[in-house]
Amino acid sequence: MPRIRTLLISTLACALVAGSTGAAQALASRSQVTYFEASSELLNANTRHHAIEQLQYLGVKALRVELKWYDVAPYRTNASKPNLDFTQPVNYLWGQYAIVLAEAKRLGWPVLLTITGPAPRWATANGKSPYITRPDPKDFEEFTTAVAREFGSEVSTYSIWNEPNESVFLLPQWNSNGTPASGRIYRGLYQAGYAGLQAGGLAHPKVLFGETAPVGYDKVNPRKEGSRALTHPVAPLAFMREALCLNAKYRKAASCSELQISGYAHHAYTLPAGPYFKPGEQDNVTIGALSRLSNALNLAARAHAIPGGVPIYLTEFGVQSFPNKFLGVSAAKQAEYDAISEHIAYENPRVAAFSQYLLKDDPVGGPANFQTGLEYSNGRAKPLYSGWPVPLTVSKTGHGVSLWGLVRPATGATKVTILVKAPGSRRYKTLRTVTTNSAGYWSLSSSTAGQFWRVRWTSPKGVKYEGPPIAR
Description:
Helix content: 25-40%
Distance between the termini: 32 Å
CATH topology of the domain at 62-316: TIM Barrel
Strand content: 15-25%
Shape: globular
Structural class: alpha/beta
Strand order of the largest sheet: 1-8-7-6-5-4-3-2
Largest sheet: 8 strands, parallel
């Protein structure tokens, strides 16, 4: 889970300085998995039942769960490693994680399990809180062996470590001379984690590499900034090159073999400037700059650092809304930007998965401070709550508008009604009823003048959905 990043704010500051309907457009043949992460509600026995009911209403069909090593490890605050067989699931305290994964299996929801830190104290290099400094690869391999033995039948995809290019999740990020350090540390953890999953009985585990945060630095200057420089995040593509033993020209060190990865996981958060924003720093990757990641993966494959053509999984995403005063947009804009971001991902043939991070906002000023939820922290629904089940984008074209959307709760082709409100009108009228493809996607071209559009759909069980107004 990400935190507010001053780098995002400074990056934004730099960017700011610098009557008739046509036939439905041909739909893309592809679809994408959409993971939903609502760990706070699902891992709490008091809120889980209501949260699952909400997720079912929203059309959720897959979950992302972050399994924190520290949460389940025995004797986690001991300075020395206990004398136990840590490859055996019986020696861990799986608690609410086991309940959530069993419930997902019952519902038929595939699970992306991100195995991540913090580590138990005894598995870190310095034994100091927050227990993220150089976690021991061998200990991690034993842990992932136990994970595979415990949850092998309940997890469809694994991923190793959350945002390892961020100092709140892995240390050190930099060497004392200002060169990146976290990439090589992560490589060791990934290799150990993969080996552990195999040792746990998964001969060919589906494992994602990366889980990178969207922005960071290519280099730091400890002489100028002191120790503070060493806590800066590493830019995702600089981190990827380091983890894959590639130099700046994507030439691989002979000492490193090709890694087996099933996909690259990335958190392509954007800024208040909108989903099409591209950071000036070429090694940073927001949703509007996904081609940078695709190009980097192609170059890495050409260097035989990874297999060719690995897909991109956007495993954590959300649009910040007010009351986040640094990165937030209005609640109406949040719904609009989120749909645009999903459309960007859908149109990219390299992207295999999109995601939504948070059902409910973090409390403002709390230890986590993200306002990407479909609800405010008090449980009041935002426009995104009604928009997420039926996302809609409206783009201006030469002779009108192009509309795209998804009926997320649908389980097959269905009919959805598109409404339009003309400039100066007080009421919406039906623009057209269209039929989605089997995955629920639809698109439409229209020359009808409009100021706002929205979507209306009724499920086979009679549940009514109506998205928020979307302006052109």
